[in-house]
Design goal:
The complex is a heterodimer of chains A (442) and B (585). With 442 residues, chain A is of the alpha/beta class. Chain A folds into three domains: 10-71, Beta Barrel (Elongation Factor Tu (Ef-tu), domain 3); 77-343, 3-Layer(aba) Sandwich (Rossmann fold), CATH 3.40.50; 353-437, no CATH class. Helix content of chain A is 32%, strand content 23%. In chain A, strands 9, 13, 14, 15, 16, 17, 18, 19, 20 and 21 form a ten-stranded mixed beta sheet that branches. Chain A has a seven-stranded antiparallel beta sheet with strand order 1-7-4-5-6-3-2, with no helix packed on it. In chain A, strands 8-10 form a two-stranded antiparallel sheet. In chain A, helix 8 (353-375) packs across helix 9 (382-399). The N and C termini of chain A lie far apart (70 Å). The relative contact order of chain A is 0.12. The mean pLDDT of chain A is 93. Chain B has helices spanning 217-222, 241-251, 266-275, 303-321, 334-347, 361-369, 401-409, 418-422, 442-451, 456-480, 487-504, 518-533, 541-560, 566-584; strands at 4-11, 14-20, 27-33, 36-46, 49-54, 66-73, 75-78, 86-87, 117-121, 128-130, 134-140, 143-148, 156-162, 166-168, 175-179, 184-187, 191-194, 204-206, 230-234, 256-262, 292-297, 326-332, 373-376, 382-391, 412-413, 435-436. In chain B, the strands form five sheets. In chain B, strands 8, 18, 19, 20, 21, 22, 23, 24, 25 and 26 form a ten-stranded mixed beta sheet that branches. The longest helix of chain B is centred in the C-terminal third of the chain and has 25 residues, at 456-480. With 585 residues, chain B is α+β, with helices and mostly antiparallel strands. Chain B folds into four domains: 4-73, Beta Barrel (Thrombin, subunit H), CATH 2.40.10; 117-189, RNA polymerase II/Efflux pump adaptor protein, barrel-sandwich hybrid domain (OB fold (Dihydrolipoamide Acetyltransferase, E2P), Beta Barrel), CATH 2.40.50.100; 204-437, P-loop containing nucleotide triphosphate hydrolases (Rossmann fold, 3-Layer(aba) Sandwich), CATH 3.40.50.300; 456-584, Bovine Mitochondrial F1-ATPase, ATP Synthase Beta Chain, Chain D, domain3 (Orthogonal Bundle), CATH 1.10.1140.10. Chain B is globular and about 90 Å long. The structure holds adenosine-5'-triphosphate (ATP) and magnesium ion (MG).
Chain lengths: 442, 585
Amino acid sequence: MTQKTAFQKVYTKLTKITKATCSVKAAGVGYEELAIVNGRLAQVVKIIDDEVTLQIFAGTEGIPTNAELVFLGKPPVLRVDDDLAGRFLNAYGEPIDGGPALTGAEREIGGPSVNPVRRKQPSQLIATGIAGIDLNNTLVTGQKIPFFADPDQPFNQVMAIVALRAKADKIILGGMGLSNDDYLYYRNTFENAGALERIVAFINTTENPPVERLLVPDMALAAAEYFAVEKKEKVLVLLTDMTMYADALSIVSNRMDQIPSKDNMPGSLYSDLAKIYEKAVQFPDGGSITIIAVTTLSGGDITHAIPDNTGYITEGQLFLRRDAEIGKVIVDPFRSLSRLKQLVIGKQTREDHAQVMNASIRLYADAANARTKHENGFELSDYDERTLKFARDYSEKLLAIDVNIDIDQMLDTGWKLFAEYFSPEEVAIKADLVKKYWPSRN
Amino acid sequence: MLTKGKVKGIISNLVIVDVEGPVAQNEICYILMGNIRLMAEVIKVQRHQAFVQVFESTRGLRLGTDVEFTGYMLEVTLGPGILSRNYDGLQNDLDKFEGIFLKKGQYNYPLDENELWDFNPLAQTGDQVQAGSWLGEVIENWVPHKIMVPFKFEGTYKVKWITGKGSYRIKDKIAVLTDEAGREHEVTMVQKWPVKLPIRAYKTKSRPFKILETGIRVIDTLNPITEGGTGFIPGPFGCGKTVLQHALSRQADADLVVIAACGERANEVVEIFTEFPELIDARTGRKLIERTTIIANTSNMPVAAREASVYTAMTIAEYYRSMGLKILLLADSTSRWAQALREMSNRMEELPGPDAFPMDLPAIISNYYSRAGYVELNNGKTGSITFIGTVSPAGGNLKEPVTESTKKAARCFYALSQQRSDSKRYPAIDPIDSYSKYLEYDEVKDFVSEYISPDWIDKVTKVKDVLIRGREAQEQINILGDDGVPVDYHVRFWKSEVVDFIILQQDAFDKIDQTTPLKRQKYMLDKITDIINAQIQFDSFEEVAGWFKKLINALKQMNYSEFGSPEFVRYEKEVDEMLTETVKL
Ligand SMILES: Nc1ncnc2c1ncn2[C@@H]1O[C@H](COP(=O)(O)OP(=O)(O)OP(=O)(O)O)[C@@H](O)[C@H]1O
Ligand SMILES: [Mg+2]
């Protein structure tokens, strides 16, 4: 932590202590300024008359009323420079990898927003090799999109794969409430891929105090802005798990006696999350920030305030699902949506992309209906039977997350499956495309 | 002497100020943070303390900081040059700011003070005038922009002097008016007005009677909105609120469109910035951007300015309505505005209403909606503001305070259905739950009967009935199985699918299908009416689906073809042949 200098005033009389905050009588304090309370970092969240309330990131356990409190005279900062690359840091932006201290200039985190008229419309495709994403839910640089996942799903693995294949200049990992195993998984995966010099990680694990997490997204995005604005790089930010972040928000706001709104979340949840996600941006000069996040669900409930507010902010969402029939995890084609996909589909991909995507999803839906019909004891037609076979192959060869092919191959696979199980009329794709792409019999 | 004060408390963007002197509710003040001036608005006064909401981040603000009150409320600047601009919620011109990031405490003049406008006088020396009277006009893009007696002028005035035809800057003197007491007042081409107060410079506000053509079939045909009407679009995330509003802003038959992007995504505004300068307005042949003004206060911009943004947009709309123009005002999303109110109310520890929203939320919303309307101006001309807002209900559940309050205030309800959106039946407006109260207005019925056709409303009612009966038939089929119900149930279901696929569903991204003029809607409704009236006989249920799918396909091709073009005629023939063959059967 930053050393206190000789002339800084030391306060030693706390007037109030709650689970996440403490108060002190002090003068000349700036709003959102940092302080150190018995060695723990804290931030000013409220000033009324001469009483200043601070949130202590590491929690208030064991903090006595005579704790030593020193104000630092500045809001949270990150030292930004090229030497960030390859570093693993904690929520305060301090090295946890045994490397040297950062040397860059101090930059306030949670800084100002981009002027909307200075943005460019996102337009560059991000290829991940996963057909459930590239074919059906194409991602675009400057997009913000979360995985909506149950806690037991392999979202961290998928995110790591996506990050490594995305051809990003930098990958910034913001880990919030990450288990130590998952943290090491990310670290090893990036290391094995020889990608360490492209990574910057801000890690808060389950072993760290929950309130510290509140700093992680802003730290990660301050680093991202440095590389995207000053170095004009394509930056990919991974935030996992935003549900843990929101839970930490509710801890602080509830400790401050704010009236909770739905699901005990603070009334400002929408604005708090939007401030983070809206940092995703495409700049006109080539730099970009893309955010891929994880929002874990409880019991698959997407009407809970956290996923609900997230859905209202992000540009689509990706759902993972275990397909029992093939015994693999797939990207669910029904509930997933990338809202920016139309900006690149058929423009940066082959002309038949939209049609192949829609036709296969429609046939996959027919298969789902056939399955319901079967379960309800009705007889299946020949067409029904064929859709079921198609669905199995489609799931295995395209939707499964272990698929790794380029988009043309995905489209070719689609056509092959159409021809295997259906007639062109059943697939109902524009005649000129069928003529061009329908595989010949031999 | 303006009042001064000192900062006494800071909770996020709520600041408590000790004041030495009088302050007014909604008065604007500036917090003097070094050389940065933070703009704020008084939202509560208690004894010697003013509670102000700051339109900026308060990071670094200290107790004891000086505050200067201004004596005026939050105002917008009204004059030629507003159109096509991109403003933030406080009417700063976003294009004038330098740098990539918005800096705090940065404000700018919303118009161009040096631009020259060709002024044409409309009033003469000696004329009696009052607030809102047209003194002259300039051409803004293609719009005859009226230069009016400032709305703040009370009582009647005489024109003492008015300048002749010529080129002027907005702040040049163009007229001198004499009030009843004989005092003289100079008038320029620019004036200011406080956003929270409605502009009332008109004679009467009458009941809307004219349909506002939007080109969206499920609205115009089934539940039309009127010129000067109000409507709202609630729906869970991703169901198509924004796509629908963008379609309205492109296609609706309005002279001008004001869009308040209130607490939503910046990329969606960028879409408008990027596309509107390219797109042509079919009615005028001009670029769409020429009739459009954007108030962008996206979700990452200061929360308090979100509230201001909807009022700024409304006031600009009222200004142009006073020129006898037809304005469409859109706000996406009014829920974000309500949430901004909630955040502030919570910080002030007010007694919370349902879901912690402020108690007076219903009153605030209905007050806002009541500023829309069709007005007759003092000179006998008419103007209108049609307002359509979106609502983003928490968890997609319509039983929440913002939806419920808005339902009381708005006359059209366009409910987006998750189920329709999931099955990609866009626009996902639920045809059965949605309504337009205007269909009950005698004035509207008369208008429709004259302007479209006397049996229009009957046909529309019939189509709605087909949808309901189709839904019932489908439920029966699902329970009893395909062959467990009479064949007629299948026919009923498929007739409702014809209505669904051909009238309700409309491809927002297809050049032709995206907008259907009323004339064409009438043509198609007549065609669909023939189909639903046809007595079609089938021997077994297996035949039904195939036949109707073919019919729907041909009808859909009609929708995708230029009205009256050879392809259109060809597909129509296909439809007609199918009908004659089968009915004979
Ligand atoms: N009329 C339409 N035609 C085709 N696709 C549509 C249509 N309406 C919506 N969609 C699809 O649904 C997506 C979401 O639509 P939209 O952004 O309008 O939702 P929304 O209701 O505004 O959501 P939010 O509340 O999150 O802002 C679009 O990106 C598009 O893919
Ligand atoms: Mg939207």
